[in-house]
Amino acid sequence: MESLSMWEATANKRKEREQLQGEEQCDVVIIGGGYSGLSSAYHLQKKNVNTIILEKWRVGSGASGRNGGEVLTGYIGSMEAWEKKKGLEAAKKMWQLSLDSIDLIQNIIKEHSIDCAFKRNGDFFAAYKPAHMDALKRDQEYMARVMNYHDIKVVEKKDLHSEMNTDFYHGGRIDAGSAHFHPLNYAIGLAEAAEGLGAKIYEQSEALKVERDARNKVIVTTPNGRVIADQLVIVTNGYAGDINQTIKRSVIPIESIMIATEPLPEELVEDIIKKDRAIHDTKRLLYYFRRTADNRLAFGGSGRASSKRDQRNLFDHLHAGMLNVFPQLKDTRIEYRWGGKVGFTKDMIPYIGQLEDGTHYAFGYCGHGAAMSSLFGKMIADNITNEEVEDNPLIVNQLKPIPFHSQHAKAVGILKFYKKLQDAIS
Ligand SMILES: Cc1cc2nc3c(=O)[nH]c(=O)nc-3n(C[C@H](O)[C@H](O)[C@H](O)COP(=O)(O)OP(=O)(O)OC[C@H]3O[C@@H](n4cnc5c(N)ncnc54)[C@H](O)[C@@H]3O)c2cc1C
Protein backbone atom coordinates (compact mmCIF):
# COMPACT_ATOMS: atom_id res chain seq x y z
CA MET A 1 0.00 0.00 0.00
CA GLU A 2 2.90 2.33 0.68
CA SER A 3 4.13 2.02 -2.94
CA LEU A 4 4.99 5.07 -5.06
CA SER A 5 1.93 7.27 -5.44
CA MET A 6 1.08 9.12 -8.64
CA TRP A 7 1.42 12.34 -6.62
CA GLU A 8 4.99 11.47 -5.62
CA ALA A 9 5.82 10.56 -9.22
CA THR A 10 4.45 13.87 -10.53
CA ALA A 11 5.51 16.11 -7.63
CA ASN A 12 7.42 19.38 -7.90
CA LYS A 13 11.15 19.19 -7.31
CA ARG A 14 11.84 19.18 -3.60
CA LYS A 15 14.84 19.20 -1.36
CA GLU A 16 16.00 16.36 0.86
CA ARG A 17 15.90 17.59 4.43
CA GLU A 18 18.46 16.65 7.05
CA GLN A 19 17.97 14.15 9.82
CA LEU A 20 18.09 15.62 13.32
CA GLN A 21 21.62 15.22 14.75
CA GLY A 22 22.42 16.26 18.31
CA GLU A 23 20.41 18.56 20.53
CA GLU A 24 18.18 21.47 19.46
CA GLN A 25 15.93 23.83 21.40
CA CYS A 26 12.77 25.63 20.29
CA ASP A 27 9.48 26.98 21.62
CA VAL A 28 7.25 24.28 20.13
CA VAL A 29 8.23 20.84 18.85
CA ILE A 30 5.76 19.29 16.39
CA ILE A 31 5.66 15.57 15.72
CA GLY A 32 4.30 14.83 12.23
CA GLY A 33 5.05 16.50 8.89
CA GLY A 34 1.60 16.34 7.26
CA TYR A 35 -0.76 19.28 6.71
CA SER A 36 -1.64 19.49 10.43
CA GLY A 37 1.99 19.75 11.52
CA LEU A 38 3.09 21.98 8.65
CA SER A 39 0.18 24.35 9.19
CA SER A 40 0.80 24.46 12.95
CA ALA A 41 4.42 25.44 12.29
CA TYR A 42 3.45 27.93 9.58
CA HIS A 43 0.95 29.74 11.80
CA LEU A 44 3.18 29.64 14.90
CA GLN A 45 6.09 31.10 12.95
CA LYS A 46 3.78 33.89 11.77
CA LYS A 47 3.47 34.79 15.46
CA ASN A 48 7.26 34.55 15.91
CA VAL A 49 7.04 31.29 17.86
CA ASN A 50 10.03 29.08 16.99
CA THR A 51 9.12 25.59 15.82
CA ILE A 52 10.80 22.33 14.91
CA ILE A 53 8.92 19.63 12.98
CA LEU A 54 10.06 16.03 13.36
CA GLU A 55 8.89 13.82 10.50
CA LYS A 56 9.43 10.06 10.51
CA TRP A 57 9.83 9.82 6.71
CA ARG A 58 9.51 12.86 4.43
CA VAL A 59 7.12 15.81 4.41
CA GLY A 60 3.78 14.52 3.10
CA SER A 61 4.74 10.83 3.35
CA GLY A 62 1.60 10.14 5.37
CA ALA A 63 -1.94 10.82 4.18
CA SER A 64 -1.15 14.41 3.21
CA GLY A 65 0.90 13.36 0.19
CA ARG A 66 -1.20 10.34 -0.71
CA ASN A 67 -4.81 11.53 -0.68
CA GLY A 68 -7.34 12.22 -3.41
CA GLY A 69 -6.78 15.97 -3.16
CA GLU A 70 -10.53 16.56 -2.79
CA VAL A 71 -10.83 19.69 -0.65
CA LEU A 72 -14.43 19.31 0.45
CA THR A 73 -16.86 21.42 2.43
CA GLY A 74 -18.56 19.86 5.45
CA TYR A 75 -18.13 16.63 7.38
CA ILE A 76 -19.27 13.02 7.16
CA GLY A 77 -23.05 13.10 7.35
CA SER A 78 -25.35 16.06 6.82
CA MET A 79 -25.27 19.29 8.81
CA GLU A 80 -28.86 18.52 9.77
CA ALA A 81 -27.60 15.34 11.45
CA TRP A 82 -24.88 17.38 13.20
CA GLU A 83 -27.49 19.87 14.35
CA LYS A 84 -29.39 16.99 15.97
CA LYS A 85 -26.24 15.79 17.73
CA LYS A 86 -24.66 19.09 18.72
CA GLY A 87 -27.37 21.76 18.54
CA LEU A 88 -27.99 24.51 16.00
CA GLU A 89 -25.33 26.98 17.11
CA ALA A 90 -22.61 24.33 17.14
CA ALA A 91 -23.67 23.03 13.72
CA LYS A 92 -23.59 26.56 12.29
CA LYS A 93 -20.14 27.09 13.73
CA MET A 94 -18.95 23.74 12.35
CA TRP A 95 -20.21 24.62 8.90
CA GLN A 96 -18.48 28.00 9.00
CA LEU A 97 -15.22 26.33 10.10
CA SER A 98 -15.41 24.02 7.10
CA LEU A 99 -15.83 26.97 4.70
CA ASP A 100 -13.05 28.85 6.50
CA SER A 101 -10.73 25.88 6.08
CA ILE A 102 -10.93 26.06 2.28
CA ASP A 103 -10.58 29.86 2.24
CA LEU A 104 -7.50 29.49 4.43
CA ILE A 105 -5.88 27.03 2.00
CA GLN A 106 -6.75 29.23 -0.95
CA ASN A 107 -5.17 32.24 0.76
CA ILE A 108 -1.99 30.39 1.76
CA ILE A 109 -1.60 29.07 -1.80
CA LYS A 110 -2.07 32.57 -3.19
CA GLU A 111 0.19 34.29 -0.67
CA HIS A 112 3.06 31.87 -1.29
CA SER A 113 2.38 31.12 -4.96
CA ILE A 114 2.22 27.41 -4.19
CA ASP A 115 2.20 25.50 -7.46
CA CYS A 116 -0.34 22.77 -6.64
CA ALA A 117 -3.04 23.07 -9.35
CA PHE A 118 -5.63 24.32 -6.83
CA LYS A 119 -9.04 24.68 -8.50
CA ARG A 120 -12.21 25.74 -6.70
CA ASN A 121 -14.62 24.15 -9.16
CA GLY A 122 -16.87 22.56 -6.56
CA ASP A 123 -17.54 18.92 -5.78
CA PHE A 124 -20.17 16.51 -7.05
CA PHE A 125 -21.70 14.12 -4.52
CA ALA A 126 -23.10 11.33 -6.71
CA ALA A 127 -26.17 9.30 -5.67
CA TYR A 128 -25.44 5.57 -5.78
CA LYS A 129 -29.09 4.62 -5.19
CA PRO A 130 -32.25 6.46 -6.34
CA ALA A 131 -33.31 6.83 -2.69
CA HIS A 132 -30.10 8.74 -1.91
CA MET A 133 -31.39 11.61 -4.09
CA ASP A 134 -34.08 12.31 -1.49
CA ALA A 135 -31.43 12.85 1.17
CA LEU A 136 -29.39 15.10 -1.12
CA LYS A 137 -32.47 17.22 -1.96
CA ARG A 138 -33.40 17.49 1.71
CA ASP A 139 -29.86 18.57 2.44
CA GLN A 140 -29.93 21.29 -0.22
CA GLU A 141 -33.16 22.67 1.22
CA TYR A 142 -31.83 22.52 4.80
CA MET A 143 -28.54 24.19 3.93
CA ALA A 144 -30.30 27.09 2.18
CA ARG A 145 -32.98 27.54 4.85
CA VAL A 146 -30.99 26.96 8.04
CA MET A 147 -27.35 27.62 7.14
CA ASN A 148 -28.13 30.36 4.60
CA TYR A 149 -25.84 28.50 2.19
CA HIS A 150 -26.97 28.70 -1.42
CA ASP A 151 -24.07 27.12 -3.31
CA ILE A 152 -25.63 23.64 -3.45
CA LYS A 153 -27.45 22.57 -6.60
CA VAL A 154 -29.19 19.24 -7.20
CA VAL A 155 -28.61 17.45 -10.50
CA GLU A 156 -31.32 14.97 -11.51
CA LYS A 157 -30.50 11.65 -13.17
CA LYS A 158 -31.69 12.96 -16.55
CA ASP A 159 -29.09 15.76 -16.32
CA LEU A 160 -26.24 13.62 -14.99
CA HIS A 161 -24.43 13.79 -18.33
CA SER A 162 -23.92 17.51 -17.83
CA GLU A 163 -21.50 16.47 -15.05
CA MET A 164 -20.17 13.04 -16.05
CA ASN A 165 -20.43 10.64 -18.94
CA THR A 166 -21.76 7.69 -16.92
CA ASP A 167 -25.09 6.03 -16.18
CA PHE A 168 -23.75 4.50 -12.97
CA TYR A 169 -25.28 7.15 -10.69
CA HIS A 170 -28.79 8.43 -10.12
CA GLY A 171 -27.97 12.12 -10.11
CA GLY A 172 -26.27 14.00 -7.32
CA ARG A 173 -25.55 17.43 -5.95
CA ILE A 174 -22.95 20.09 -6.65
CA ASP A 175 -21.40 22.18 -3.89
CA ALA A 176 -19.61 25.08 -5.53
CA GLY A 177 -17.57 25.78 -2.37
CA SER A 178 -15.28 22.73 -2.66
CA ALA A 179 -11.97 22.48 -4.49
CA HIS A 180 -9.20 20.09 -5.47
CA PHE A 181 -5.41 20.25 -5.62
CA HIS A 182 -2.23 18.20 -6.07
CA PRO A 183 -2.03 17.07 -2.45
CA LEU A 184 1.70 16.48 -2.22
CA ASN A 185 2.58 19.72 -4.00
CA TYR A 186 0.45 21.60 -1.46
CA ALA A 187 2.33 19.86 1.38
CA ILE A 188 5.68 20.65 -0.23
CA GLY A 189 4.67 24.30 -0.71
CA LEU A 190 3.33 24.61 2.82
CA ALA A 191 6.59 23.16 4.20
CA GLU A 192 8.61 25.70 2.22
CA ALA A 193 6.32 28.52 3.36
CA ALA A 194 6.80 27.47 7.01
CA GLU A 195 10.58 27.25 6.53
CA GLY A 196 10.52 30.67 4.89
CA LEU A 197 9.10 32.00 8.16
CA GLY A 198 11.82 30.25 10.18
CA ALA A 199 10.49 26.76 10.95
CA LYS A 200 12.98 23.89 10.99
CA ILE A 201 11.91 20.57 9.52
CA TYR A 202 13.85 17.36 10.09
CA GLU A 203 13.03 14.34 7.95
CA GLN A 204 13.86 10.68 8.64
CA SER A 205 13.61 11.79 12.28
CA GLU A 206 11.08 9.63 14.04
CA ALA A 207 10.10 10.76 17.52
CA LEU A 208 10.85 7.69 19.62
CA LYS A 209 10.26 8.96 23.13
CA VAL A 210 8.63 11.96 24.81
CA GLU A 211 9.57 13.01 28.36
CA ARG A 212 9.10 16.08 30.55
CA ASP A 213 11.80 17.34 32.90
CA ALA A 214 11.43 18.96 36.33
CA ARG A 215 10.84 22.39 34.71
CA ASN A 216 8.09 20.79 32.56
CA LYS A 217 10.19 21.17 29.42
CA VAL A 218 9.40 18.62 26.75
CA ILE A 219 12.23 16.38 25.56
CA VAL A 220 11.63 14.46 22.33
CA THR A 221 14.21 11.82 21.44
CA THR A 222 14.87 10.74 17.83
CA PRO A 223 17.34 8.08 16.58
CA ASN A 224 20.25 10.56 16.48
CA GLY A 225 19.21 13.54 18.51
CA ARG A 226 16.72 15.25 20.75
CA VAL A 227 14.67 18.44 20.86
CA ILE A 228 13.98 20.39 24.04
CA ALA A 229 10.92 22.64 23.85
CA ASP A 230 8.33 24.48 25.94
CA GLN A 231 5.35 22.94 24.18
CA LEU A 232 4.55 19.74 22.31
CA VAL A 233 2.20 19.14 19.37
CA ILE A 234 1.43 15.58 18.25
CA VAL A 235 -0.21 15.43 14.83
CA THR A 236 0.47 11.91 13.64
CA ASN A 237 -3.19 11.18 12.78
CA GLY A 238 -3.69 7.73 11.11
CA TYR A 239 0.05 7.03 11.49
CA ALA A 240 0.05 7.42 15.28
CA GLY A 241 2.60 5.09 16.88
CA ASP A 242 3.56 4.35 20.45
CA ILE A 243 4.78 7.79 21.57
CA ASN A 244 1.39 8.52 23.07
CA GLN A 245 -1.04 5.71 23.84
CA THR A 246 -4.05 7.97 24.49
CA ILE A 247 -3.77 9.53 21.05
CA LYS A 248 -2.95 6.22 19.38
CA ARG A 249 -6.03 4.57 20.86
CA SER A 250 -8.32 7.49 20.03
CA VAL A 251 -7.66 7.46 16.30
CA ILE A 252 -8.99 4.70 14.06
CA PRO A 253 -6.70 4.25 11.06
CA ILE A 254 -8.60 3.10 7.98
CA GLU A 255 -6.80 2.05 4.84
CA SER A 256 -7.84 3.84 1.64
CA ILE A 257 -6.43 2.99 -1.77
CA MET A 258 -6.11 4.79 -5.07
CA ILE A 259 -5.29 4.03 -8.67
CA ALA A 260 -4.40 6.46 -11.44
CA THR A 261 -4.65 5.96 -15.18
CA GLU A 262 -2.10 6.97 -17.76
CA PRO A 263 -2.67 10.54 -19.05
CA LEU A 264 -5.84 10.48 -21.17
CA PRO A 265 -6.53 12.35 -24.40
CA GLU A 266 -7.99 15.76 -23.56
CA GLU A 267 -11.34 15.06 -25.27
CA LEU A 268 -11.75 11.85 -23.28
CA VAL A 269 -10.95 13.29 -19.86
CA GLU A 270 -13.18 16.31 -20.52
CA ASP A 271 -15.96 13.98 -21.58
CA ILE A 272 -15.91 11.63 -18.59
CA ILE A 273 -15.79 14.46 -16.00
CA LYS A 274 -17.16 17.56 -17.64
CA LYS A 275 -16.57 20.34 -15.15
CA ASP A 276 -13.40 19.21 -13.42
CA ARG A 277 -15.05 18.80 -10.04
CA ALA A 278 -13.98 16.59 -7.13
CA ILE A 279 -16.39 13.64 -7.23
CA HIS A 280 -17.36 11.30 -4.40
CA ASP A 281 -20.41 9.13 -3.96
CA THR A 282 -22.95 7.80 -1.49
CA LYS A 283 -21.93 4.14 -1.93
CA ARG A 284 -21.44 2.13 1.27
CA LEU A 285 -17.69 1.84 0.66
CA LEU A 286 -17.43 5.03 -1.28
CA TYR A 287 -15.57 5.84 -4.49
CA TYR A 288 -13.91 9.22 -4.89
CA PHE A 289 -12.37 10.36 -8.15
CA ARG A 290 -11.31 13.32 -10.22
CA ARG A 291 -9.25 14.52 -13.12
CA THR A 292 -5.65 15.54 -12.49
CA ALA A 293 -3.80 18.50 -13.98
CA ASP A 294 -2.01 16.09 -16.36
CA ASN A 295 -5.32 14.58 -17.54
CA ARG A 296 -5.32 11.32 -15.61
CA LEU A 297 -8.25 9.88 -13.77
CA ALA A 298 -7.37 9.38 -10.09
CA PHE A 299 -9.82 6.94 -8.53
CA GLY A 300 -10.00 5.97 -4.87
CA GLY A 301 -11.90 3.66 -2.59
CA SER A 302 -11.54 1.97 0.73
CA GLY A 303 -9.16 -0.90 1.09
CA ARG A 304 -8.17 -3.15 3.89
CA ALA A 305 -6.27 -6.35 3.34
CA SER A 306 -4.67 -8.93 5.55
CA SER A 307 -2.17 -10.23 2.98
CA LYS A 308 -0.19 -9.11 -0.07
CA ARG A 309 -2.46 -11.24 -2.27
CA ASP A 310 -5.53 -9.51 -0.85
CA GLN A 311 -3.92 -6.18 -1.56
CA ARG A 312 -3.61 -7.07 -5.26
CA ASN A 313 -7.25 -8.16 -5.25
CA LEU A 314 -8.28 -4.89 -3.66
CA PHE A 315 -6.61 -2.90 -6.41
CA ASP A 316 -8.18 -5.17 -9.06
CA HIS A 317 -11.50 -4.68 -7.37
CA LEU A 318 -11.09 -0.91 -7.38
CA HIS A 319 -10.12 -1.02 -11.06
CA ALA A 320 -13.28 -3.05 -11.80
CA GLY A 321 -15.24 -0.37 -9.87
CA MET A 322 -13.68 2.34 -12.00
CA LEU A 323 -14.75 0.46 -15.15
CA ASN A 324 -18.28 0.11 -13.78
CA VAL A 325 -18.43 3.88 -13.54
CA PHE A 326 -16.57 4.55 -16.80
CA PRO A 327 -16.70 1.46 -19.07
CA GLN A 328 -15.24 3.61 -21.85
CA LEU A 329 -11.86 3.35 -20.06
CA LYS A 330 -11.57 -0.43 -20.54
CA ASP A 331 -8.42 -0.12 -22.68
CA THR A 332 -6.83 2.49 -20.45
CA ARG A 333 -3.67 1.56 -18.57
CA ILE A 334 -3.44 1.93 -14.80
CA GLU A 335 -0.02 3.47 -14.08
CA TYR A 336 -0.08 3.85 -10.30
CA ARG A 337 -1.53 2.02 -7.31
CA TRP A 338 -1.04 3.21 -3.76
CA GLY A 339 -2.75 3.65 -0.44
CA GLY A 340 -2.51 5.26 2.92
CA LYS A 341 -4.12 5.62 6.31
CA VAL A 342 -7.08 7.89 6.90
CA GLY A 343 -7.60 8.86 10.55
CA PHE A 344 -11.15 8.50 11.89
CA THR A 345 -12.60 9.04 15.35
CA LYS A 346 -15.42 7.09 16.94
CA ASP A 347 -17.64 10.19 16.75
CA MET A 348 -16.81 10.63 13.05
CA ILE A 349 -15.72 14.18 13.66
CA PRO A 350 -12.20 15.58 13.99
CA TYR A 351 -10.79 16.28 17.43
CA ILE A 352 -8.58 19.15 18.51
CA GLY A 353 -7.51 19.72 22.10
CA GLN A 354 -4.91 19.22 24.80
CA LEU A 355 -3.98 16.23 26.95
CA GLU A 356 -3.73 16.67 30.70
CA ASP A 357 0.03 17.20 30.44
CA GLY A 358 -0.52 20.07 27.98
CA THR A 359 0.28 18.20 24.75
CA HIS A 360 -1.66 19.70 21.83
CA TYR A 361 -3.23 17.36 19.28
CA ALA A 362 -5.51 17.34 16.25
CA PHE A 363 -6.54 14.28 14.29
CA GLY A 364 -9.39 12.19 12.91
CA TYR A 365 -10.57 14.30 9.98
CA CYS A 366 -12.58 11.30 8.72
CA GLY A 367 -11.71 11.76 5.05
CA HIS A 368 -12.15 15.55 5.12
CA GLY A 369 -8.63 16.44 6.22
CA ALA A 370 -7.42 17.83 2.91
CA ALA A 371 -9.57 20.82 3.84
CA MET A 372 -9.77 20.76 7.64
CA SER A 373 -6.22 19.96 8.72
CA SER A 374 -4.72 23.30 7.63
CA LEU A 375 -7.32 25.12 9.74
CA PHE A 376 -6.69 22.78 12.67
CA GLY A 377 -2.99 23.61 12.42
CA LYS A 378 -3.93 27.28 12.66
CA MET A 379 -6.21 26.58 15.63
CA ILE A 380 -3.38 24.74 17.41
CA ALA A 381 -1.21 27.81 16.86
CA ASP A 382 -4.01 30.04 18.20
CA ASN A 383 -4.44 27.79 21.25
CA ILE A 384 -0.71 27.88 21.98
CA THR A 385 -0.64 31.66 21.77
CA ASN A 386 -3.87 31.85 23.81
CA GLU A 387 -6.08 33.05 20.98
CA GLU A 388 -8.45 30.13 21.39
CA VAL A 389 -11.35 30.06 18.92
CA GLU A 390 -14.40 30.81 21.06
CA ASP A 391 -17.03 28.06 21.44
CA ASN A 392 -15.26 25.81 18.99
CA PRO A 393 -17.47 22.70 18.98
CA LEU A 394 -14.58 20.56 17.72
CA ILE A 395 -12.47 21.01 20.86
CA VAL A 396 -12.31 17.71 22.74
CA ASN A 397 -10.08 17.94 25.79
CA GLN A 398 -10.91 14.56 27.26
CA LEU A 399 -10.09 11.80 24.87
CA LYS A 400 -11.76 8.48 25.55
CA PRO A 401 -9.39 5.92 24.02
CA ILE A 402 -10.99 2.96 22.27
CA PRO A 403 -9.87 -0.38 23.66
CA PHE A 404 -8.46 -1.73 20.39
CA HIS A 405 -6.05 -4.16 22.05
CA SER A 406 -6.34 -7.12 19.73
CA GLN A 407 -6.36 -7.32 15.97
CA HIS A 408 -9.71 -9.10 16.14
CA ALA A 409 -11.31 -6.32 18.18
CA LYS A 410 -9.83 -3.84 15.73
CA ALA A 411 -11.28 -5.63 12.70
CA VAL A 412 -14.71 -5.95 14.31
CA GLY A 413 -14.55 -2.30 15.34
CA ILE A 414 -13.77 -1.23 11.82
CA LEU A 415 -16.61 -3.27 10.33
CA LYS A 416 -19.05 -1.77 12.81
CA PHE A 417 -17.58 1.58 12.00
CA TYR A 418 -18.24 1.14 8.27
CA LYS A 419 -21.86 0.34 9.06
CA LYS A 420 -22.12 3.53 11.11
CA LEU A 421 -20.51 5.44 8.27
CA GLN A 422 -23.10 4.16 5.82
CA ASP A 423 -25.94 5.14 8.15
CA ALA A 424 -24.47 8.61 8.50
CA ILE A 425 -24.31 9.15 4.75
CA SER A 426 -27.62 7.74 3.60
C1 LIG B 1 -5.61 7.32 0.06
C2 LIG B 1 -6.15 8.51 0.82
C3 LIG B 1 -7.08 9.33 0.19
C4 LIG B 1 -7.61 10.43 0.88
N1 LIG B 1 -8.40 11.30 0.18
C5 LIG B 1 -8.83 12.44 0.78
C6 LIG B 1 -9.53 13.42 0.04
O1 LIG B 1 -9.70 13.31 -1.18
N2 LIG B 1 -10.00 14.51 0.72
C7 LIG B 1 -9.76 14.68 2.05
O2 LIG B 1 -10.22 15.67 2.61
N3 LIG B 1 -9.03 13.80 2.76
C8 LIG B 1 -8.54 12.70 2.15
N4 LIG B 1 -7.75 11.83 2.86
C9 LIG B 1 -7.40 12.17 4.25
C10 LIG B 1 -6.36 13.30 4.34
O3 LIG B 1 -5.27 12.97 3.55
C11 LIG B 1 -5.93 13.46 5.80
O4 LIG B 1 -7.06 13.79 6.59
C12 LIG B 1 -4.89 14.57 6.01
O5 LIG B 1 -3.83 14.44 5.11
C13 LIG B 1 -4.41 14.52 7.45
O6 LIG B 1 -3.22 15.25 7.60
P1 LIG B 1 -2.35 15.06 8.92
O7 LIG B 1 -1.22 16.00 8.83
O8 LIG B 1 -3.21 15.19 10.11
O9 LIG B 1 -1.87 13.55 8.88
P2 LIG B 1 -0.78 12.85 7.94
O10 LIG B 1 -0.64 13.54 6.64
O11 LIG B 1 -1.08 11.40 7.92
O12 LIG B 1 0.58 13.14 8.71
C14 LIG B 1 0.98 12.44 9.86
C15 LIG B 1 2.50 12.39 9.79
O13 LIG B 1 3.02 11.95 11.05
C16 LIG B 1 4.23 11.26 10.77
N5 LIG B 1 4.58 10.49 11.96
C17 LIG B 1 3.88 9.48 12.55
N6 LIG B 1 4.52 9.05 13.68
C18 LIG B 1 5.63 9.83 13.80
C19 LIG B 1 6.70 9.88 14.75
N7 LIG B 1 6.74 9.07 15.81
N8 LIG B 1 7.68 10.79 14.56
C20 LIG B 1 7.66 11.63 13.50
N9 LIG B 1 6.67 11.62 12.57
C21 LIG B 1 5.69 10.73 12.72
C22 LIG B 1 3.88 10.42 9.56
O14 LIG B 1 5.02 9.98 8.88
C23 LIG B 1 3.03 11.41 8.75
O15 LIG B 1 3.80 12.12 7.79
C24 LIG B 1 -7.22 10.71 2.22
C25 LIG B 1 -6.29 9.89 2.84
C26 LIG B 1 -5.75 8.79 2.15
C27 LIG B 1 -4.75 7.93 2.83
Automatic annotation (TrEMBL):
It holds the Pfam family DAO. Signal peptide: none annotated. Transmembrane segments: none annotated. Residues 27-382 form the FAD dependent oxidoreductase domain. It comes from the Bacteria. This is Oxidoreductase. It comes from Siminovitchia fordii. The lineage of its organism: Bacteria, Bacillati, Bacillota, Bacilli, Bacillales.
